[in-house]
Description:
Blueprint: E1 2-7, H1 11-23, E2 29-33, H2 44-49, E3 53-57, E4 65-69, E5 74-77, E6 90-95, E7 98-104, H3 114-136, E8 140-145, H4 169-179, E9 184-185, E10 199-200, E11 212-213, E12 216-220, H5 222-225, E13 228-233, E14 249-253
Parallel strand pairs: 1-2, 7-8
Antiparallel strand pairs: 1-14, 2-4, 3-4, 5-6, 6-7, 8-12, 9-12, 10-11, 13-14
Helix pairs in contact: 3-4
The protein binds one DNA strand through loops.
Amino acid sequence: xxxxxxxxxxxxxxxxxxLDWLAAGNADVLALQETKLTDEAxxxxxxxxxxxxCLYSGQKTYNGVAIIARSEPADPLTDIAGLDDPQRRxxxxxxxxxxxxxxxxxxGSEVGSEKYGYKLGWLEKVTAFIAEEMQRHEKLVVVGxxxxxxxxxxxxxxxxxxxxxxxxxxxxxxxxxxxALGLSDCFRLxxxxxxxxxxxxxxAAGFRRxxxxxxxxxxxxxxxxQQCTRCxxxxxxxxxxxxxxxxxxxxxxxL
DNA sequence: ATGGTTGTTAAACAA
Length: 255
């Protein structure tokens, strides 16, 4: 079973990339972030014609998350206790007995900004939610655009990014609290090439120069970590015309 | 050097 995450930065623009990528057999479950579509505008028919089910929680212009799956997802959830938030950043569902929590974590803009405060508060609420979900579901993954590079080796230039947004100590500590619930970063379960990233700024030829960050993650509960056989970043879609600024990340489980 | 690019939406705002 292949579980993937991809920040598509507008599903309207990226739908052809997503459909081609799914047709190539890259994922059984694909979590999307930054769909930037209202639920009314979600391309349900195209996804069903491709042989997949979908769930979505969207809004106009910003944010928006979705789960696309070969099997029908069950028990969807879009809002969590203690977080009365119009921003559509959370979508959980159960697929083939695996609880999938799809997150589009707040970017945070700049360290110390109002949005940065919102990010840290949001992460606290979401951490409590994940802890609850883990009590209910032995097989669970938390996937998405975390907007946090876990370690300096996930950053092309750690000095330039030192204590900046996506890399600051409070953000990394918040991610560590999520991992401390017993969730493993699937990518780091295996030997990986150095300078492996999942996001590259559109500006300054960031992708061509591999000036990236690894901020898109798949975290697995102990029962699934045992079954994880592979985790890779697929940079190929990033090479296409009009790409997302993120690449998809895929984890394979022996299920 | 606070640059540069893309998406949404109509001059910014967000990333």
